[in-house]
Amino acid sequence: MGFFDDLKQKIVASSAGEYDVPMVSSKLDEIVKSSSSGVVMMTFQSCPYCVKAREVLDSNSIPYTDIVLEDLDNGALKGPLRAELGKRFKQTSVPAIFLKEEFIGGANNGGKGGLIPLLDSGEFQKML
């Protein structure tokens, strides 16, 4: 992990403040396992990368569960969930996309390479 990634994780963790780590960790587990289609995205409503990921999934007729962080507990879990994402997956940004409970990254990078690169290479379809 690079210096800026580490710094970003520290900033997100600091801005999350005090929170119930076991409860938020359990909530993250619940979210990751929440889709019968196998694809789960944690997003912000108007984030341009989240909008792009939704468009790409929709245009490829791939069903997914979209967990909009601002909608969870009136937004109170947004910071803590991003902090836990950083701890577990070394990524605090959204979208955070999971395929069959495996973190694949965001729209363009991270995890296994990200949604769009995996679709372009055909790997996403194989994993699905």
TrEMBL record:
The keyword Zinc does not apply. Keywords: Disulfide bond, Electron transport, Redox-active center, Transport. GO terms for molecular function: protein-disulfide reductase activity. One of its GO terms (cellular component) is mitochondrion. The keyword Disulfide bond applies. InterPro entries: Glutaredoxin, Thioredoxin-like_sf. Residues 39-104 form the Glutaredoxin domain. Pfam families: Glutaredoxin. It comes from the Eukaryota. PROSITE patterns: GLUTAREDOXIN_2 (PS51354). Belongs to the glutaredoxin family. This is Glutaredoxin domain-containing protein.
